[in-house]
Amino acid sequence: MRKIRPAGMVAASAPGPGDPRNSGAGRRMDVHLRDAGAGEVVLCPVGEVDMATADTLHAALGGALERPGTRSVVVDLAEVGFLDSSGVRVLVSAAMTARRDGVALRVVDPQPVVARVLRITAVGPLLGLPADDPSPRAAGFRGID
C-alpha cells in the first residue's frame, strides 16, 4: 500500500552525523582550566559556544565553582569566536551561582563579536565587564595586517 503525503509536504530524512544540516555536526569546543593560585581558577574555552557546545562550558564552570578553595573564577574568552544565547545563559547562570556562593566570577578578553553579544544582552556588568568596554579588542581593533 502506498502512503500519500498531503500537498506541500516533502519526505526528509533526519540529519545524521556529518550531515551539514545537523547544526552540531563537526563543532567542538575545548575548555582549558588553569589554577592561577590564591584560589583563582582560569577557564579558557576554545571554539564556538552555542546550543551544541554550551553543556561543555557549563560542566567546566560547574567544576571550577565546586573546587575546594575556589575564591575567583576567570573566564578568558580570547579564543571564543562565537557566542549565542545558550552561551550567554551558561555564563549568567554561573555568575549567579558564583555570587550566591561568595565566589567572584568575571569574563575577560572577549573577541569583538562576543563582546557585542554581551553588550547587546546587557549582561557584561554581571560578568565583570564594563558597561561600555573601551578596550581596543572590544572596539574591533585588529591591528595592522
Automatic annotation (TrEMBL):
A Pfam family hit: STAS
InterPro entries assigned: Anti-sigma_ant, STAS_dom, STAS_dom_sf
Region spans: Disordered: 1-26
Ranges where the STAS domain occurs: 39-123
GO molecular function annotation: anti-sigma factor antagonist activity
Cited NCBIfam families: ant_ant_sig
Protein name from the UniProt record: Anti-sigma factor antagonist
Organism from which the protein derives: Micromonospora costi
